[in-house]
Every structure is written in C-alpha cells, then in structure tokens.
Amino acid sequence: MFQIQTLQPTYLPPPFHHQRHRIHAASRPSSTTLAVPLSTSNKNPSIQSLCKKGQLKQAIYLLTHEENPIQHTYELLIRSCAQQKNLSDAFTVHRHLIDNGFDEDPFLATKLIDMYSELDSIQHARKVFDEITNKTIYVWNAIFRSLSLSGYGEEVLSLYRKMNRIGMPSDRFTYTYALKACVVSESRISLLCHGKEIHAHILRHGYEGHVHVMTTLVDMYAKFGCVENASFVFSSMPVKNLVSWSAMIACFSKNGRPFEALELFREMMLESGDMLPNSVTMVSVLQACAAVSALEQGKLIHGYILRNGLDNILPVMSALVTMYARCGDLDLGRNVFNQMEKRDIVSWNSLISSYGIHGLGSEALAVFQEMVQQGMSPSPISFVSVLGACSHSGLVDEGKLIFDSMVKEHGIHPTVEHYACMVDLLGRANRLDEAAKLIADMRDEPGPKVWGALLGSCRIHCNVELAERASRRLFELEPRNAGNYVLLADIYAEAKMWDEVKRVKKLLEARGLQKVSGCSWIEVRRKIYSLKSTDELNPQIEQIHALLVNLSKEMMEKGYVPQTKVVLYDLDAEEKQRIVLGHSEKLAVAFGLINCSKGETIRITKNLRLCEDCHSFTKFISKFANREILVRDINRFHHFKDGECSCRDYW
DNA sequence: ATAGGGTTAG
C-alpha cells in the first residue's frame, strides 16, 4: 500500500564539477572557515537575498561555487525550493547537501522532510527519514506530520508503535500528529481504537493539561462521531481556549446535535468574556442555526460578523448563504451572495443547493450555467447540488443532460453520491425501471445511498417488489439504520400487507432498533419550541389539540380527507384519523396559529419527510386560515399558500 | 542551539 520509491533518475541533478571530500559538518576544521572569511560573509548574504527574492536558480548557481556552505544556507535554499514548488532544484540542493556532509544533520533532515512533503513527494520525505541515523524527536515528528498530510494514517501509527518500541519518548507534537493520523486514514477501517490507545498514552505521560493536545483529542473523537467521548475530554480540560471551544461546538454541529452546539456557544459567551469568537467559531454556529432553522439567532450572528469584520471570509459568507436558505429565507441568502466581493466554488454551490431545497430547479440550473460561463470549474459537489435541485423539481431530462456532461464536458467522474442523485431523480419521477437499470450498469458498488434513494422512490410510488430488492441490500449494508425498516414497513402498510408489516417490525425490534420519532419545531420570538406527538410538556398542548380537532372537523366538511394509509397499524378508520391528527407537524401548525401574529409566515422544521396527510392538511389550512406556512422537511421546503404547495405535490 | 501543533464553508 505504502511504497518507498527511489529518486527518479530523470530528476537527478547533473554531477558537480568540483567533487568534494565528504566532510562531516561537525568535524570540519575551523581553519577552513577562517581561511575564507570574506567569501563566506559575502556569498551567504547573497544566497540569502537571492532566496528572498525568489531567484532560486541564481542562488543554486552561487551554491555550486560556495566553498563552505553552512547549515543556514541550506535551510534557506530548502525553504525556497518548497515555496517555488520546484522538485528538480530540490534534488540539486539535496544532493549538494549530501556531498558536503550534511546528510546526518537532523535539523536539515526535518527541513528536507517538510520540503518534500510540500512538493507532494512523500516518498522522498520518507527516504530522508529512513536514511538518517540520528533521528531526533524533531525528525520523527516531521515524518509524522508529512505522512498525516498525505493521508497515510496507518503508516504514521505503525511508525509511532516502532518509536515506542525503541524507547524514543513522544512529546506534545508527537501526540497531536498521531491523533491526526487516526482520522486521516484513507482506508475504510476505523482507527478509533488506536486513537483511544493514544489517549491513554497522553494521560499516562501527564499531558492532560496541555491545551493543544487535548483539543486535538476532542477533534479526534468528534471526527469519529464519538460525541460523548469528545464532550468528556472537553469538560475534563483544565485550560480551554477559543480553539478548544470551537472544536467542541463544531463537534456538536457536525454530528447532528445543533441544539447543543448553540447551547455551548451561549455558555462560551457567558463564561469567558475575554474570548471573542472568530470566523471558525461562527461557521459552526451558523451551521447549527441552519440545522434548527434558527433564523432570528442567525441574524444576530450575521450582525456580529459584520461588526467584527468577518464578512470578507469566504467560509463565513458561504455558511451565511446556506443558513439563510435553510432557515427559509432564500432572498436574504441571495443578498449575501450578491454582496460578496469574491466567490469560490463553495459559494456557488451554496447558492445552487439553496435554490434546490426551495424547489426552484430552473433557477438552480441557471445559477449553475452562469457559474460555468464565468469560468468557474464545477466541483463534484456542484453536481450533487444541481442534480438534487433537478430532482426536487422533477426536471428529469435536464438532470440527465447535466449528468452526461459531467464526464464529457467537465472531466468529473460520477461517484456513488451522483448515482444516488440520479436514482432519486428518476425514481421520484416514477421511472423506477430506469433507476434500477442505472444501478445495474454502475461500475462501482452501489452503496447505501444509492439503494436508499431507490427505496425512498419505491415508497412514493408503492413498488413492493423493487422495495424488497433494495431493502434486502440495505439491511446487509447498514443493518442498524432504522429508517430503512420503517420505509419498507410503510410500503407494506400501504399495500395492506399486514403480515409483512409485522415481520419487518419484529426484525426492527429484534435488532434493538427504534423508529425515529417525528419531531417538529418552530421559532417564536427567538425561542425554539419543539413538538412531538407524544409530548405532554407543552403548556398549550390542550389548546393545540382542541384547535386541531375543530379545524379538522371544519375542513372535512369542506373536502379534506384524512390520508390514514401512513399508519402502520391495522386499526379502524377513526383510530387512524386520531393518530395522524397527532402528528408533530400538525401540532406545530396549530402552535404557530396560536402564537404567531396575523400575516406572519409560520415557519416549521421537521426531522422526517412530510407525510401525505400532513401535506394535504397544511394545504387546506393555508387557505382556510389564510396563512402562509413554510415547512422544511428532511429534504426540502414546502411553501403552502392559498391551498397550494410550492412542491406541486411532487416531493 | 535551531525547528513544529489543535477548530472552518457545499
């Protein structure tokens, strides 16, 4: 897997004109240095100044005429080669250094390792490391750093074990690099157990108070999704700084726990007045606001960003665009995008997917075209965004054209994720056979995302046969994802195959899994209220239920028919009606009607896909109560107005 | 003697 290559002969520098004796730097007679004091002091500054000016070739020319190059000269040249990204010059300097007896200089070895690493030539870095006998801790750490940056996590860990075996003590840097190595590995096996082992070493050697080491540890657990471990380490830290807090906030944000991210941010602002959040902190906080649709909180953060001059930082601005769009305010997101002085691919992708989740497929396509016209090369994520947008708006032919253009026009090979988008696009449009054929024709192994997209489409169009095929694969690939079992049970329930429903439910129980319960939430005056169908905590719950019962009665007179096929129990019609009326989204609608002022759009977010009954119920309400209602489900937005929904019943 | 580290957008 990891191979060390020797120097490529084509890159080898030509032989030197003046072959010199190999003299060890330390054993060089001092008289030699004294004999040419002028030449040394004249030439060294000039090599130095040439390096500074970026005139590497001239500097190397001077080097070949240099009588007594010193360590510092090589240091400057090495740095210059790295900056100029010039590998063949790097070889020249390296060779020269060896010929002058500096090949056992550990200081220069670390510099060489760093240089080769920056030149994307990890094999040569490794060769320097292997060949130096005097491996100081700096040399070890340098190769760890380089290997980690190139993604060779396992190689780092194997060297780390070797280092421990030979009794070379680690220092604080070793620990941070070794921890990083656990999360950068390209192989699919989890190196979490190694991370835990290093955690133990850190404690054993008394680094539990070291803020850098401990923050890296928090981040290591965060990257593995071990939120509890990360949180435990974080709270055990005697000293925390802004980076530690930011790492923990990012941990909550990235692992689907946005409320805790926001809570920790609040705590940070309260506890430590001297710590001012920076752009990195802001990005994680904005993601959390986006996840929970905390529009008002997001606006406050936006204000902070403007006041503190963070509004020229691209990651912050892209996160703002996404935050506004995901909080339901596409226009504010567009404004932020328009005001950006510079845009990178991520900014464009943010805008494209913003249009996508609002169901504005043609607009997303237009932005994509505009971006390409401006000379910006689309990234793989651009295609995920634009294909997703096509999917939500049913733009099947447009999506297929884009998919074909990936390789043909942009040289980007579709990944499993892109196939998942296409399966979703075709499947939603009830072209399930085409979707199945696309999967069959895939060169890579279709992963859970692809089969999941197919199963989701089978749910929409109630295709039992294909659903069974998809779920069989899914149960193998991700046996612990409860959502797949529920989808299959839904499909059986709709087909009234009650025995099969029972069988799937038993399977779910046998594996110790639970259906994710529906939850909806709504922001009222900067506070977020979440509602669950089983929730008796809301003080207004009786008022809410009463309102819903009345509304449904009145609406049924006007033609609303409860869609009870989503209920997974074989119950009588009335019981089923009672169950669907308790869905969390309807509770949130009622809560919004009670607590939001007239004319204000009611904005609701929920953790699952909108069920058909809630969809038709909310359409009715929007007309009946003359209210605009904006609902974000797990996939997209539904904008209800005058009895219609922006998704045109295609979701 | 010298040198090096942790959090970030779709």
TrEMBL record:
<feature type="repeat" description="PPR">
    <location>
        <begin position="136"/>
        <end position="170"/>
    </location>
</feature>
<feature type="repeat" description="PPR">
    <location>
        <begin position="344"/>
        <end position="378"/>
    </location>
</feature>
<protein>
    <recommendedName>
        <fullName>DYW domain-containing protein</fullName>
    </recommendedName>
</protein>
<dbReference type="InterPro" id="IPR032867">
    <property type="entry name" value="DYW_dom"/>
</dbReference>
<feature type="compositionally biased region" description="Polar residues">
    <location>
        <begin position="28"/>
        <end position="44"/>
    </location>
</feature>
<dbReference type="InterPro" id="IPR011990">
    <property type="entry name" value="TPR-like_helical_dom_sf"/>
</dbReference>
<dbReference type="Pfam" id="PF20431">
    <property type="entry name" value="E_motif"/>
</dbReference>
<dbReference type="InterPro" id="IPR046848">
    <property type="entry name" value="E_motif"/>
</dbReference>
<feature type="domain" description="DYW">
    <location>
        <begin position="559"/>
        <end position="651"/>
    </location>
</feature>
<dbReference type="Pfam" id="PF13041">
    <property type="entry name" value="PPR_2"/>
</dbReference>
<dbReference type="InterPro" id="IPR002885">
    <property type="entry name" value="PPR_rpt"/>
</dbReference>
<dbReference type="Pfam" id="PF14432">
    <property type="entry name" value="DYW_deaminase"/>
</dbReference>
<comment type="similarity">
    <text>Belongs to the PPR family. PCMP-H subfamily.</text>
</comment>
<feature type="repeat" description="PPR">
    <location>
        <begin position="379"/>
        <end position="414"/>
    </location>
</feature>
<feature type="repeat" description="PPR">
    <location>
        <begin position="241"/>
        <end position="276"/>
    </location>
</feature>
<feature type="region of interest" description="Disordered">
    <location>
        <begin position="23"/>
        <end position="44"/>
    </location>
</feature>
<dbReference type="InterPro" id="IPR046960">
    <property type="entry name" value="PPR_At4g14850-like_plant"/>
</dbReference>
<dbReference type="Pfam" id="PF01535">
    <property type="entry name" value="PPR"/>
</dbReference>
<keyword id="KW-0677">Repeat</keyword>
